[in-house]
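subagent[fold] <- orchestrator: predict structure for attached chain, return tokens only, no commentary.
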Amino acid sequence: MRGLAYRLTAYLVTGISVGIAAWLFLCLALSDGGFAYGAVAAIFLLLGVLSAYFLLRQPVFRAGSADMTISPGQILASDLTCITAGTVAGFFLVDGFSERLFGIKACVTDPLAADVIAVMFIPAAALLALFVTQTGGQRIRADENGLLIKGISGSVQVSWEDIVSMQPQRQHVLVGRVGFLIPRHLRTNIVVSLRNGGSARIFDPGSGAARNSLIARLHGAMPARKRSLLNDIEEEWE
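subagent[fold] -> orchestrator:
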């Protein structure tokens, strides 16, 4: 959970800081030609970069990378994509509230759009942070003794004999289309059902190469009589 907290804080602080820097530079420094605005923009930009570096260094590059389902580079790319989205939202948020807060007319943002962004900014950042942390924070170790799954909610260690089934589970997210909310496929996870009635989840690593690598690791570790458990997963991930 600590990695999730670090990541969410990084998305919020970096998005707002770099968004403010972009607004100061594009809407004030360039139009008014003020050196002071440019200097303040540079300070906010530096704050955002440092926040991202120190807050994301621990959850991205930490011990146990050999058990990761995706590489640190893939996690970092996901983080940068989310931070970019947060920066764009931060820019429009500051721009939309600039007249109400500072008496400065907005450059491009409608106040109503800014209100919507203000309501959605933190929940959207939290969902993105959770999604990236679930995938990037997951550790899978498979050997002849069984399967170990570590994630943000804890760890599960079971022997191969305790695994009853491994089934694909399609995960969807609601998106807006012409005024309606419709489900859109997000990823396909693996649900591991256990003999004691419990279950564990392996999150979809996303890329085809990472999926193939995970399947190969499971195939190589599990007994031959258990390999048929992966048939549905392989078919779904093709």
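orchestrator: received. Logging for downstream: The mean pLDDT is 85. The CA atoms of residues 49 and 99 lie 27 Å apart.
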